[in-house]
């Protein structure tokens, strides 16, 4: 069975549509696993939630999701993120608000633990260094932990002899993660930050136990136009062109 792993959609409906279409081209998926931050930054929060809800899916809470519902204080957000969160809060339908409020911080699904930032601090911690990964491995029990938040596709391995190493995600070819335990970031659908502006996601095939990383081009200018028309902070629109 195939599972699609997506993260950090950030109200970018055009990117989400492109990714879901691309997933469909590869055949049916059993479930979409979404690692949080469905909303924030981008122009279409309600539409992204509605589109996700058409799929059999699991979603966990990201910091932007909870901030948009008032479950999390926005004082720790940078000014642009804060402006976008407050705008998002003003746009949410009652259904969208209820959906976001109900999201759990972590979910365990078979061999996988899902957490937005890290299993240690699910809403806030960034795992982009081996040091952070070492601490994270102590906070989940499964073989794999799926995370988002940094918007950077990354793999961390804890080998059987206790060493933690950072690995890049192999591009566009199936790979297995056999030895030891792993922390896996699929990258971001709606606001990639690794210098590649294309939407990023992973597929896991439970039969072959293979993962595959994909980058999907989407119509960035449409999203940028929508953001400008809605008065969202301009740098948030511009950064989409650079994948940063
Ligand atoms: Zn995010």
Overall description:
By secondary structure, this protein is of the alpha/beta class. It has a single domain, classed as Metallo-dependent phosphatases (Purple Acid Phosphatase, chain A, domain 2). It contains eight helices and twelve strands. It has helices at 13-25, 45-53, 63-69, 79-91, 94-101, 130-137, 220-229, 234-242; strands at residues 2-6, 31-34, 57-59, 106-109, 112-115, 144-146, 154-158, 164-167, 175-176, 181-185, 199-205, 210-216. The strands form two sheets. The chain has a six-stranded mixed β-sheet with strand order 3-2-1-11-12-9. Strands 4-5-6-10-7-8 form a six-stranded mixed β-sheet, covered by helices on one side. The radius of gyration is 17 Å and the shape is globular. The two termini are 33 Å apart. The protein binds zinc ion.
Alpha-carbon distance between the termini?
A: 33 Å
Q: How many H/I helical runs?
A: 8
Main sheet characteristics: 6 strands, mixed
Number of discrete domains: 1
Q: What is the ordering of alpha helices and beta strands?
A: EHEHEHHHEEHEEEEEEEHH
Kindly name the structural category: alpha/beta
Strand order of the largest sheet: 3-2-1-11-12-9
Layout: helices, strands, pairs:
Layout: E1 2-6, H1 13-25, E2 31-34, H2 45-53, E3 57-59, H3 63-69, H4 79-91, H5 94-101, E4 106-109, E5 112-115, H6 130-137, E6 144-146, E7 154-158, E8 164-167, E9 175-176, E10 181-185, E11 199-205, E12 210-216, H7 220-229, H8 234-242
Parallel strand pairs: 1-2, 2-3, 5-6, 6-10
Antiparallel strand pairs: 1-11, 4-5, 7-8, 7-10, 9-12, 11-12
């Amino acid at each position: 069975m195939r599972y699609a792993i997506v993260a950090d959609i950030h109200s970018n409906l055009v990117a989400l549509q492109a990714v879901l279409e691309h997933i469909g081209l590869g055949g049916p998926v059993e479930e979409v696993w979404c690692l949080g931050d469905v909303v924030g930054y981008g122009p279409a929060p309600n539409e992204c939630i509605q589109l996700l809800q058409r799929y059999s899916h699991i979603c966990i809470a990201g910091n932007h999701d909870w901030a948009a519902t008032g479950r999390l204080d926005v004082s720790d957000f940078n000014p642009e993120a804060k402006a976008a969160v407050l705008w998002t809060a003003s746009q949410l339908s009652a259904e969208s608000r209820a959906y976001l409020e109900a999201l759990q911080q972590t979910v365990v699904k078979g061999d996988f633990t899902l957490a937005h930032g890290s299993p240690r601090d699910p809403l806030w911690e960034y795992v982009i260094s081996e040091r952070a990964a070492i601490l994270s491995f102590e906070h989940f029990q499964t073989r794999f932990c799926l995370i988002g938040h940094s918007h950077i596709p990354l793999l961390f391995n804890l080998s059987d002899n206790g060493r933690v190493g950072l690995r890049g995600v192999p591009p566009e070819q199936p790979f297995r993660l056999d030895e030891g335990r792993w922390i896996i970031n699929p990258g971001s659908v709606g606001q990639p930050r690794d210098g590649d502006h294309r939407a990023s996601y992973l597929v896991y095939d439970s039969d072959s136990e293979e993962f595959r990383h994909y980058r999907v081009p989407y119509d960035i200018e449409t999203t940028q136009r929508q953001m400008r028309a809605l008065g969202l902070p301009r740098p948030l629109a511009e950064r989409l062109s650079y994948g940063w």
